[in-house]
Structures are given as C-alpha cells and as structure tokens.
Batch of 2 targets.
Target 1
Amino acid sequence: MIKPTNELPIAILGGGIAGLTAALHLKNHSVPFVLFESSDAVAGLMKSERDEEGFTYDCGVHFLTNRLAAAIGMSRDCQPMARYGETVHLRGRCYAYPLGLLASPKYLSSALIGKSKSLFASTASTAREYYSSQYGSRLSEEIAIPLTEAWSGANGDEVAAAVGQKFSTGLGRMMMLRTAAKMTNRVIGIGYASTIVESTNSWHVYPQGGISSVCHRIAEKVEENVRLNCNVEQIDVENERVQSIIVNGKPLPVAGVISTAPVHVLPKLVRGTNALAGLEKFEYRAMIFVNLKLNGPSGLTDVVTWVPERDYPFFRLSDIGMGLPWLVPNGKSQVTCDIGCKVGDSHWNMNDSELTKLCIDSLERMIPGIGKRACGSRVVRVPLAYPIFKVEYESKRKSWEQTTGVDGLLSVGRNGEFAHLLMEDVFWRTRWKVSEFLKNSL
Amino acid sequence: MRIHFEHVLCTVCRADDCLPIAVGEDFEYRTSDEEFMAVQCRRCRMVYLNPRPDAQGIEHSYPANYHAFQFNESDFGLVYRVRQRLEARRLLRWCRGLPEHAKILDIGCGDGFHLELLQRFGKPTWSIEGIDSDPRAAEGAKRRGIQIKQGSVEEVGFEQKSFDLIFMIMTIEHVSDPLAMLQCVSTLLKPGGRLIIVTDNTDSPDFRIFGNRHWGGYHFPRHLYLFNRQNLGELCQRAGLATVSVRTALSPVNWTYSLRNWIQDWKGPNWIVKRISLESPIALTIFTLVDLPLSLIGLGAILHGEFVKEKSE
C-alpha cells in the first residue's frame, strides 16, 4: 500500500458511513488523516433517535445485511429482521410484489410483452424507455414511472435509464432467493446491494440501538482523528492537484481530500480548477418522513407498501415494527410515510401537524379508521436525500463515476458519487475507491 | 465474551483488495454467537478471514473438546482405526529417502496423532519432535505418552538448519501470520530438507458449492487463511522454499462438515444432522466416494504440498 510521502494528512469531509469507512480504511493502512464533520455528531443520514415512549426514528428505511454487520464486526449487536415483504397499492387493492402483480392477467401480459420486446429494443436512454422495455407499458405507466416520478420529482422522460438499471434482480434469481427465504425463515436481501452479489446467505439484520450504531461502531475505532463542528470552507487546488483546505477559517496543508459532500456543493468549495464545472447542475431530491405512531397494528399488509397513484402525497409507506419489532413499543405500530419534495415547495413548507393530518387523511382512504388510532407523530426532513439521475447530465455523471478530474481529490458515498448506492454498496465501494486513490493519486 | 476484531491484509500479496465471499458462524463448536466474514483477495485469490478476532478471540474459539486435542479411538472408533492406517501410509510415503538419523518436526501437532504413527511405524533411529501452541494439545499428547513442546515455533528456539523433514498437517490455515511462520520453518530446515503442508483446497468443488457460507474448510473462525495450489506455492517461495509438488488429495471431511452445516443452518431435521458427522463411518464412506474421482483429476478437497529448502540457500 502506498502512503503519502510527505506525511501530510488526508482530509475527509463528512462523518457519515462513507466518510467513516474511508477513515477506518486509512487507519488500517496507517495513513495519516483527519475527518471533519460540520455538525456535532457522526452518522449523517444514518442518524437515529429514540423517543421517551420507545419509538425509534431513522432518516427513512435503512437496510443492513448480516454480511455488512460481519464486515464491521458488529453482528452480535444486530438481530435478524422479523419479516419483510413489499406490496403495491393500486385502485384500492394491494398486490404482493412481484408475484401478486404477475398473478393479474393484465400485468402478466404486460410483463411478457415488455420482455419479448426488450430482446429487440435498442438501448434505453430514459427511465420511461427502460421501464417500458422491461415491464411493458401497463406496469410501466401505472407503477414504475409514477413511483420514479414521485421519488425523483422529474418526468419519466427526463430521468435517465440508469435509475432502473441499478436494481434489476432477474425474476428467476428473485424466486430462488425468495424460496431460500421461506426455507430458512430469514429476510434475504433482494435488490438492496448492487456492488456485491446477492446471496441466499445474505439477509437483513438491524442493530438493537438503531441504525446510527453502525456509524458509532466505526467511529469508536477512529475517534482520535474525528473533528466535530469543523466546517471545511475551501479546498485549494494548484496545477490540478489538491494542496490545502481551509477549516473553520484556518488553512491546513493536506496530502489529499476525500469528500462526501454532495457533488453540486463540491464545486463551491474547490478553488483553482475548472475540472468540476457542470456539477452544480446536479440535483438531489428532498424527502419528508412522516412517522405516525399508532395504537395497535397499522393495518398495512406488509413492511413496505408502494403507492404509485398520484393523488396520494406519499409514494411509500413502511411499517417499521412489522419488520423490526424492537424499534416500537409493545402494542403500538409506526408507519413512515415518504414524501418526495423540493426544499421550499408546498409540502416542505407545511408544519409538522399539517403534514401529519395530510398523511392520516390520505391513509384513511386505504385503512379506514386509522386516524382514531393515531397517537402522535415525528416528522424528519432531509433536504438532500436521493440523487436525481437526469438525462441532461447523464454523460457528466458517468464520467464523474470514474474520476473527479483533480489529483488528490476523491468523492465517495451516495451524495459524493451521485449514485443511488445503498449502505453495503457505500461500504465496499468506498474501501475499493480509497485503495485505488492511495495507489494512484498520492 | 465480546470478541474484538482486527483488520488484516492478504498474506500472499500484502494487498487489501478483497471481495466478501462468505459470512458464517462457528457451526461446529458454537464458541460465539458472532458472524464471521471470509474475503477473497482480488489479486491472488487467497481466501482469508477479515476482519478476524484478535488473539484473545481466536484463543477463545478453541474449546476444551476441540477435536485436535483429543482424537482418540474411544470417541471415533472405526473412523479412528481407518484414519490411522491411511495416515500412516501417507506419512511413511513422505518419509521415503530420509537418512538413518533424520530429524523430523510436526508443527501444530495437536494431541500427537501423527507423531505416534511416526514413532510406531517409522525407523527407531529417527528423532521425532512435535510442537503446538495450545497447552491442551500438550496434555492430549501426554495422554498418548508423547512429549511435545508447547509454544510457537518462532519462540521455542529449535536449532537452525537441523531438520530433514517438517510437517504442517492441517496447521497453516490456523496460523495468524503464515509467511512469518514459513520463513522461520525455512531457517529450521537443513539445505535440501523438506516441508510437507496439508491444508484445505479452495479450488475444489466442495468450496464452489458451499463456499458462500457453509463450507467446512472455513471452520469459522479458526481457519484464518485458506489456499489454492498457486497461492500456497507462491507463499512458500517467498519464504525461500521451492515447490516440489502441490497435489490435491482425497478427503471426506470438508464435504461432511459442509453438508452438515448447511442442513443445520437451514433448520433441517436433527436426525439427519446427527448422521452427518465425523464419527459416522457411513457419511465418511459416501463422501470418500464423492471425493475420490475428484482427487484423481486434481480437484480433491485438500492440498498436499511438498517444498524443499534449496541447497544454495
């Protein structure tokens, strides 16, 4: 392993899972580093809170596998997920995904026509073309595209095909994994890692202390090099090579920078190069997670319910306690309503009680009487939740996947790579990218 | 007991460029409720445990009833007697051509099963020694009436260039730094002296079938490094030992453990699990028949490596 020759530290920007994974990797290789986190705690989007009643709130749904837990050395602190399944709510009916949908002749014929057409179709460039070629027009127009549009805030023709290609587990493989799940009584991960092969031996687990304990476990190992409340204000580049940073107003010479900052923020930090021009156009979707506390079971049929109909404010509902019973108090349930939005739009500007009312009123149409069982809510707002893969900057995104274009500057993590990566992908990709970075860029 | 984990590099190429290939438990002894991860180096295909328990955690994973501390006729019956015959033949084959007063060392000798066979069937003029790092192995050997040294081969202080033949039978996979140990072994061998390594083979069909969790060769978390022909030869070469041959050989053990682990892990019926064990002559016979043709075409479950300390060294 090549180490920086001048013994200057590598600066890591951001203390989420990507920044911490990079930090641990550098520590394992005795490479000097300092991790700067602008807030007063590590974990980033993986933070979780537990309230006095015993409800736990994460920023949306997180999926951890026994494989990732073992890689971090914390499998003993995790429990297997009790159950997991997805349904699609459409015109007042719930269809199990995918078999329930395929049991319906109209969706089955749509899928078969789509599949046979895809054999002769040219490469899709938009999400609409991709879904249509994969699932046929009915499944695509009624389910896949409305969900993508709600999730991204962009029209199906504006979104690049890559958004669907990321998570395509073939039906045969899915059936094999589901059969294994039934036989082993484990929640085998399907479609929740694209970097590492899905396996009958990789199933969902969850830490007893909420998802943030994953970050805290890694942070324990690198804590002497973590600086909280430290804002990196500038990254100085000379001759297309990173030289130094400015942290809380003070300059610091560095051997390199590993950034987890959103890619549209990074150009504002970097001075002395035009290599990052164009990244400021990249967009992220904001999310509001309305966590409804309920007396008794939620009435949802499975852990995740997709809601593609546009007259609902949310596109996804998650019954946390059904899958992870230790995260909610006995006799209660918790439903998280995911609302895709833009910072400053009408949803974003609603106050918490308005959002709660909006969600309960909408849920009443799906589960009559749910409002009477509501016993509180907690609203979590995430301004930068998911990258939006727009066609207009897809070629730039693809080149960004390869390199930042600046020597000594690496960008990792979901926001830093501008890719829809899940936790396990972030962990392994960060390790590999940091290894390459040490070998090639320092 | 909470196990603390440490990060390790590939022992062959010293790289940290690996893919996770398996997660598993201590299926055989249940010494811990942790899950352990095996990774494969993307450069040399070495398979190793990473992260792995620290020294204390590894020590904890060898229970008092560990098979290598007490492999005996009363517990294993017919299996013990058959294995005695087969192993004696193998050992004597490796001992062919040794001088009248040869010095032989068995590293990781456990309770002295192989030492006893060498004493019984070898030449009385041979000087035979054994060493194992676990005190319970020494106790087991004492029960056989054999004295062995306890400690690590690097620390015990054997005379350099003194051995004609050194055995590492099902040992190298347990060693935390195989390269360091092989370098030490290299200094103990006389010029022209030979090292015999027996270890699990990761280029075998049993590994391909069960390798993402249940493969017996993982022996989670006790097997720290697992080899194929190429990387075993490469590692020995780095330690100054030239390859004479690395062949695959027949062994029903990993097949038996793998199938048992799989059925047990997938909540199969207990009566089947009980019948698939190392005490079961039927299971061992079946898997011997399975591995026999494979070993004949170079895909056997274990590796037999013969290496020589070159005379110019």
Target 2
Amino acid sequence: MKFQIKRLLSQILIFFSANLGAFGLKTGFCYPFFYCHSCPTSTSACPLKAIENSVYNIKDNGIAWKLLFYPILILGFFGALTGRAICGWACPIGLLQRGTGRIARKLKKYPIVRKLGQHKIEPRLRYIKYFVFIILVVITSALIGFMFTDICPIGFLTGTIPTLILYPGKFMPNPFFWVALVIFIMFLVLIFTVEQGWCRYFCPIGALLAPFNKISILHISVDTAKCIHCNACSEVCPMGIDVPNMKRDPECILCGKCINVCSKSYITFERK
Amino acid sequence: MKKMIVIQISALLLISGGLGGMLLFTDVYEEVQSNIVLILCLSCMKLEVNTIKEFTFETANDEPHPDFVLDNLTKGPVFLHYSEKACPGCDIMYPIIKQFFNIEFEKNEMFYETVNYENSSVSYFYTNIDYSSEEMRNSLSIYDKDHVHGLPMFSVVTLGYDRGIIRPYYTSVYGTLGFDNDEERISLLTELMQESIDMYNQNWEGYNPDQQ
C-alpha cells in the first residue's frame, strides 16, 4: 500500500474514532489534536477548552492544576513519541486541509503567489500560533473570558454548523456568532489559498506540539552530506519547510511527502 | 546521540508517569467527562438556546422528581439554578439571580434558601456542578427539558393538574435566556415565577408528595 494512502486511511480512521459519540461513547480524555467537544458526535474534550477552564477567571477561581496539566501531558505523550505526526496523521483539520491543499498547490503555480510564499516575513508569521495560544487561549481566559472559544473557527466548523443542521430551530446565534462566522470565512479562504495554512500560522495545538519535534523519538532525517539539493522535497512539503536544511524542524508534520519524492532516498523516518 | 536518547527516555518516562498518575490517583478523567464532554459548551458553539418556556409533567430522562424537590413543593414553587465554575453565561446570570431573589451566596458553593418572592415562599437551590452533591448534579438531567445539557440552566417546578392528580409541573430555560440585556432577562424570570406561583396557588391543596 502506498505510503500516502496509509496516511489518508489513518486520518479517516481517526476522524471516525473522534466521532464515536454518535454511538454514545463519551470519554473523559482530551483529543491530542484539534476537534471540538461541542460537536454532537464528539467522543472527547478539546485540549484547549481544558486549558481554558483551568485558568478561567484566575482571580476568583485560582488555577485548576490537574485540568491544566492533563491535556498538556496527553499532547506531550504523543509529542514525545512522534512529534507533530499527530498533525499530519491524525488531526481531522489536517485531513480537511489535505483536501483543500490541492487548490492551494495549484495556486502556487502563479508567480505572485510563489513570490508571496517566499517573502521574508513568511517564516515569522509562523510565530502567530504561539501568540494565539498564549494570548487568546491562556491570558484572556485567565483575565477576561473565553475569547478563543468564542471565535474559534474549528468550533464553528465542527460544533456550530453540525448543531444547526441536526437541531434546526433549537438554537439561535449568540453575540459572538457573527464575528466567529467572519473568522470562519477567513479560515476557509486561508486553507484554500495556503497549503496547511491553519497548521502553519494559527493552530494553538500545533504550537503546543511543535517543540516536541526537537526531542521526539520519531522524526524525519535528511542526509545532508549526500543531498544533491534538487529541492523536490521542499516543493512538495505542505508546511513550506526548506527540507534539505531542516534538522528536527518544529513545523514538520511528518507527512512523509519529502520521503516519497526523494529519488535518492536521502530522506528517511528515523526512530532515535 | 546518547544525550538525545537520555532526553527522549526521560521526557517519555516523566510524561507517561505524570499522565498515568493523574488518571490513577485523581478524578481528572471524570471531571473532563462530566464538565466538558457531557456538558454542552454554548460558548464554543457560539449559540444560545431558543427559550421555550412551556411547562411539562414529563421529566427529561423519565426519572422521578428528586426527593428534595418533592419535599420542598409542600412549601411553594421550587427554583433550581444550575451553574459551573468556568462558564461565561453562568457569570452573566449569577448577579441577575442574586438581584432577582434578593439573596447573597458564593458562586463556587452549593446554596439553598427559602426566599420570599411576591409574598410567596419559593425554595431556591443553587447547584454549581463543580461543588455539588451527586443528587443535585443528577437532577440536572431530570430537568433538562429540551435535552440541551448546557449551562447555566434554570428550572421552575410548580404544581399542575394532570388527569385527576396534582403533580409536579416544570419548565427549564437556558443560557442567558436568549436576551442580551438584564431587563429582558428579569422580565422573563418574573413572567415564569408569576405563572408558577399562580399554578401553585390553584393546585397546592390537592398535592401529596407521597403520591408522586
């Protein structure tokens, strides 16, 4: 079976297992990826919601330490084993972007898009996700309220839309709905125009998993001494990484496309 | 290379030990399950429940009314206020309810008081699901009339006439009651309380908690 087919099957299988709530399975685990517990068929909790709850209104409630460490340890467990492979092999939003990425790749043929993609500011935009996590998820929850939850496009996609379809007339928009709708439309534009755009720039769970790429047992290794710098790997990389020069890059989602495309087999998965 | 292996093994041992310990020795699994997965997050959905305040005799999960409600129905209508610690909707409604019944209590504890509302006795129960007894928490599913399982939820239990028997008759409203200002929220609560007191006054003479 081809490698990318295996990855697709893994993503589809995990998508279904994330929705076993449809058969009544509601667990007390947190997903190690981005998926909303307000989805009518969800099985587990969004790790970000557990983190938000743990620090919510810190002045009055204090910090619920176990609720803070629990999702971080779940993410850390998978992160220490496989780094951001969760993003490339398990996350349903990664699966969605795999579909929309085809359009984004076609757009890359246009010189203006290529130029924008290679702009010197592009690598800096990747830090946005760390700010999203620290400011929108942690600080605002502690001091103001659930700001990220109120506008989260993934919650809109997996929670709001299915709920409105399944229970017509039972719910009505709250004051944040329209802001969230605008952000959701921007999210759609992003994922159709930039390959894995959400993972690259905004995903707070990606921000939590990214540092684990530096120490994860499974990672992608490039034989830099033998590499002929044909750049075929960088061309196919959905995260826009300069693959020949990468060393445990925090952005790598271990999708393995670079391995498939390397005619010399100088790029491999390594387990150490 | 050896240094990296040591780091990897140490990290993995530390993380899996911590996670295993949390699952074995704390109630974090149950807390996440009951407070996040099983409670609908209206904030995450960016939605409000469409408030339908019709009263009904049928409990949401077909379980009987809890004893604390049946017993207090001898005194007057029962008002049940469900809330949780990390819940913006609950924070909006908390001061409104305190003002409405003219009572004082802490948000993060269980509270009960018989209040005087418009010259009628009303048993007020505040259930913060993070701090309440199992009986109180379970009553949330009993009165979750529209099967929302979202917080905050407010239930008013009164008495109604059902084919020859006087039975508990209740309704539940959710979230910030579908309004964005306190006046309209208070107006809806006033309407609900007035309706429930009128029904109670019509039916209380025939009520027998042992018949339920």
